[in-house]
Amino acid sequence: MVAKRMKENVSQQKLLECERILIPIVRSGHWHMVELVREEKKFYHYSSIKSLIYTADATKFRNKFMSFIQSNWRLRKLEHHVLESVATPQQGPTLDCGIFMIEFINNIVEKQSITISEGDCAKYRAKFCAALFDLRGGGEAWADSGDTERMSRARWRRDPTLKWGRMVATRADVEGEVAA
């Protein structure tokens, strides 16, 4: 399925123009990612939980990706691309892997060092929530103004309609319009 979509939506030329390709991976509810740096001929694996299972996923992805490129775009035999696990900040026994992965991506794109820590997750969650509210077309740009303090104090609650009972906050919760 992924290979079919990639073949339909990504041209060989566009792929070869990319300096870096960032690919999120999810397994058993854990989000991690692979970065391909073309000129270095390397794949880098980023995960907030060190585990041979996730490293094996990244290796499997690399092998399938290289096979896809060779077979679908009829490129000559590609040189072996090494997979290197990057030392990243590690999450605690929490469900913050998605927050870590998004911040890994942001840091890579912005060419900054990765500095997220478990204690930062509420702040980042608030920042991402604010950005999503802004995408929905309303109100203040909290993420842009750096005012995530109010977002981090929002009344988060379980939404039983969402799979796995994820935590949500409504715009009213964030703006303080709902009584505590």
From TrEMBL:
Query: Which residue spans traverse the membrane?
Result: none
Instruction: List where this protein forms a coiled coil.
Output: none
What keywords were assigned to this record? Hydrolase, Protease
Q: Does the keyword Hydrolase apply?
A: yes
Q: Which InterPro entries match?
A: Papain-like_cys_pep_sf, Peptidase_C48_C
In the record, what terms sit under GO molecular function? cysteine-type peptidase activity
Q: GO terms for biological process?
A: proteolysis
Question: Gene3D superfamilies from the entry?
Answer: Adenoviral Proteinase, Chain A (3.40.395.10)
Which Pfam families does the record cross-reference, listed alphabetically? Peptidase_C48 (PF02902)
Residues covered by the Ubiquitin-like protease family profile domain: 1-108
Q: Which family does it belong to?
A: Belongs to the peptidase C48 family.
Q: What is this protein called?
A: Ubiquitin-like protease family profile domain-containing protein
The organism named in the record is: Asparagus officinalis
